[in-house]
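Hello,

Our lab assistant flagged a job as stuck in the queue for most of the afternoon. It eventually completed. Since we weren't sure the result was trustworthy after the delay, we are filing this so someone can double-check. Below is the sequence as submitted and the structure that was eventually returned. Let us know if re-running is recommended.
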Amino acid sequence: MNTVFVITALFFPAVVLWLTARYRVLDAIGAVLLCYAGGIVLGNTGVLPGAILPLQSSLAEATVALSLPLLLFSVDVRQWFAIAGKAIVSMLLAVAAVLAVSTLAFFALRHRGAAAAYQLAGMAVGVYTGGTPNLAAIKTALGVDNATYILFHTYDAALSLLYLLFILSVGQRFFNRFLVPFRRLQAPSAAAVSYDAESVNAYRGIFSAKILLPLVAALVLAGAVIAASLQISSWFPAGRAAAVTILSITTLSILLSFVPRVRHIEKSFQAGMYIIYIFCFVVASMTDLKRLEHLDATILLFVAVCIFASMALHALLARLCRIDTDTFLVTSVSAICSPPFVPMVAGALKNPSVLLSGITTGIIGYALGNYLGISLALVLQQLGGLP
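-- returned structure --
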């Protein structure tokens, strides 16, 4: 079964891309959402054995690690600096929104049977400014019991999926109604014209010797970047390893993007996006909808409020600060879902210019998440007079 699953994951995106080329309705939905849908269906049919979970987790981690260098090799860092300031501001607004909403949720729900509402607030701030590593770290730091942690994590996974589906499907059109549309700083280059990764046309000629050989070299180089990053992360405590690995991969890949021969490798971005499609399929196949049968209304409501109310408040603040839609969306996703999900959003937006902004601000969130989450939880614990 393991071999069949790996083969399915590798080739399912190719089938999706072929179908989007033939059927306009599927093209309108987009490859990212279709890969997600396929994974959810497969993961909830009962076909996959429980023992396959370690393989799914390893494959998800491997695809993220391999896709990032391929995506970042083609980044024009000089152009990114022109929009970096707004991305940092948008990330700070996202952090402020999560802090405010988590605090309000604590005071609103602390008398609804959640004796440890301050723990929920701390975990919410940690995971919605950083990511899962922060959630696990704060769980340990605050002494959150396993049952509460598992329920929080389960509801977070389910509601984050709904959040992502909204962002990927209609998010850009919706927020363009009241946010400033993203303004491209220059006319699209030849590389940018071929960027539309959710199209079979973007992959045409990829197996020709002229394109394939340099692309194989890019894959080898990506492997070297991953190996070096894993070595670097081994020098840090285990709790920091994931964040350090992503930071190292990002940094080394950006440095290599300054090398013209690396930056101009054709189809590097498309290859990275294809691997992201594999990631979408694999992650979605890990979603177990049966876990939602036994509801804890307080925890579910707490998570839902923190995700969607903080997104709404972030959008309001972005409007006041004149943050454009695409920058708002990638920084929102990097905060609520963490940096590995940024490339798929950049792909859905068809805007590679914001890729680096999303990843960079997400890494900042990793660094801030533990400090903010634990600090807020302890403050709320004292304000609430809780033991």
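-- support follow-up --
The delay was a queue issue, not a problem with the job. The result is valid. Residues 76-271+295-383 form one domain. The radius of gyration is 21 Å.
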